[in-house]
């Protein structure tokens, strides 16, 4: 129904961002809300997917059309809903995802939250060969150098919890970030790499 929205980014939370357009504030669920940190109060364009349920109408947002395409392929698989699909694309290693699907790497796929063996097998069955070679989402944007604090790490872990990772999983990797200085977005990316090992 919607292809994209252009407006001012006014708010970032662990689960969603808010874009004001035409005097309305739209809640848009995204894979990594803190990847928008350097865009607050700026006009931006986000690609959208609109989901209508009995109890809600939800907007899901993406940096690029490729990222949106990966999301749409994922939610076409039985057992994968929008929240799980966001958790998968948050890793920003869609090249690795495509390779795992095409090579039947069930072990890799089950590392994503809420993806069991059956769902991983269904992903391979439904999606093998369906991704275009250029389906890698362009999330390697230059990052703003911001002095990190414990708050940045707390925000990152809050976002990871929102994606479905367990507190016990996050507790294991947290010590590896002691004494580091990263932005919230960097902490999320680094954490996702550790969680996928």
TrEMBL record:
Gene Ontology BP terms: DNA recombination; DNA repair
Localisation per UniProt entry: Cytoplasm
Sample GO molecular function, one term: four-way junction helicase activity
InterPro entries, per the entry: DNA_helicase_Holl-junc_RuvA_I, Hlx-hairpin-Hlx_DNA-bd_motif, NA-bd_OB-fold, RuvA, RuvA_2-like, RuvA_C, RuvA_C_sf
UniProt-annotated stretches for the region Domain III: 152-197
Tagged with keyword Transcription: no
Domain of life: Bacteria
Ranges for domain Helix-hairpin-helix DNA-binding motif class: 72-91, 107-126
Principal localisation: cytoplasm
Any matching Pfam family: HHH_5
Signal sequence range: none
Cited function: The RuvA-RuvB-RuvC complex processes Holliday junction (HJ) DNA during genetic recombination and DNA repair, while the RuvA-RuvB complex plays an important role in the rescue of blocked DNA replication forks via replication fork reversal (RFR). RuvA specifically binds to HJ cruciform DNA, conferring on it an open structure. The RuvB hexamer acts as an ATP-dependent pump, pulling dsDNA into and through the RuvAB complex. HJ branch migration allows RuvC to scan DNA until it finds its consensus sequence, where it cleaves and resolves the cruciform DNA.
Subunit and partners: Homotetramer. Forms an RuvA(8)-RuvB(12)-Holliday junction (HJ) complex. HJ DNA is sandwiched between 2 RuvA tetramers; dsDNA enters through RuvA and exits via RuvB. An RuvB hexamer assembles on each DNA strand where it exits the tetramer. Each RuvB hexamer is contacted by two RuvA subunits (via domain III) on 2 adjacent RuvB subunits; this complex drives branch migration. In the full resolvosome a probable DNA-RuvA(4)-RuvB(12)-RuvC(2) complex forms which resolves the HJ.
Stated family: Belongs to the RuvA family.
Note on domains (UniProt): Has three domains with a flexible linker between the domains II and III and assumes an 'L' shape. Domain III is highly mobile and contacts RuvB.
Protein name: Holliday junction branch migration complex subunit RuvA
Organism of derivation: Streptococcus chenjunshii
Record lineage: Bacteria, Bacillati, Bacillota, Bacilli, Lactobacillales
């Amino acid at each position: 129904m919607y292809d994209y929205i252009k407006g001012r980014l006014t708010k970032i939370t662990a689960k969603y961002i808010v874009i004001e357009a035409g005097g309305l504030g739209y809640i848009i669920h995204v894979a990594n809300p803190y990847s928008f940190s350097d865009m607050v109060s700026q006009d931006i364009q986000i690609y959208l997917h609109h989901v209508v349920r009995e109890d809600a109408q939800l907007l899901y947002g993406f940096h690029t059309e490729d990222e949106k395409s990966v999301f749409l392929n994922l939610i076409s698989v039985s057992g994968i809903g929008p929240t799980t699909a966001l958790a998968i694309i948050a890793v920003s290693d869609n090249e690795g995802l495509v390779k795992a699907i095409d090579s039947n790497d069930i072990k890799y796929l089950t590392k994503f939250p809420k993806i069991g063996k059956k769902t991983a097998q269904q992903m391979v069955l439904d999606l093998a060969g369906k991704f275009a070679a250029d389906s890698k989402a362009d999330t390697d944007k230059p990052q703003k150098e911001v002095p990190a604090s414990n708050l940045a790490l707390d925000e990152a872990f809050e976002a990871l919890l929102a994606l479905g990772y367990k507190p016990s999983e996050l507790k294991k990797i947290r010590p590896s970030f002691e004494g580091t200085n990263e932005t919230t977005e960097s902490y999320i990316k680094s954490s996702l790499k550790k969680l996928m090992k």
